[in-house]
Specification:
Shape: flat
Oligomer: single chain
Order of helices and strands: HHHHHHHHHH
Structural class: mainly alpha
Number of helices: 10
Radius of gyration: 21 Å
Length: 183
Amino acid sequence: MRKLAEALGVKAMSLYNHIANRDDLIDGIVDGVVSEIDLPKLDADWKTAMRRRAISAHAVLLRHPWATMPLVSRVNVGPAMLRYVDSTLGCLKEAGFSFEMADHAWNAIDSHVYGFTLQELNFPVEASDYSETAADYLPQIPAEQYPYMNQLAQRVIQGDYDGLHAFEFGLDLILDGLDRLLK
């Protein structure tokens, strides 16, 4: 709080006229990040709306790399989060999901968004270095012991496959599965 006050050019104690404590500050900032995510429209095709929402959430969290952890590890009940969840539940409910299935559906989608985002933000290899890294690690994955990993690494090294993980691939699997449940 002292560092924030210093950056704002105020006394630390004056911050407490606006926020209760550090947790309150973090909650407010996280809620601000959530407010940047596109909300699903109740009258839109649910799959299109959920896909747009998930892609937007992923992009917003990549712009704010620090925000995913407090988003998934805290109770977030700010107005932006409440609108986000309510519009999501509403879109799914209006599409024909029961409240229980709507709850499971948005949690499955968000688990993919948050998990994929955290992995992307923390993956130790840059995409441009995949081929070189695969070549460096190839001696540790001998074909006789790990035939499938070795073959995949060979494809990345040769440029036949880029090895990049696709956010929308997993998202589409989830949405298609939910669509089958709805039907």
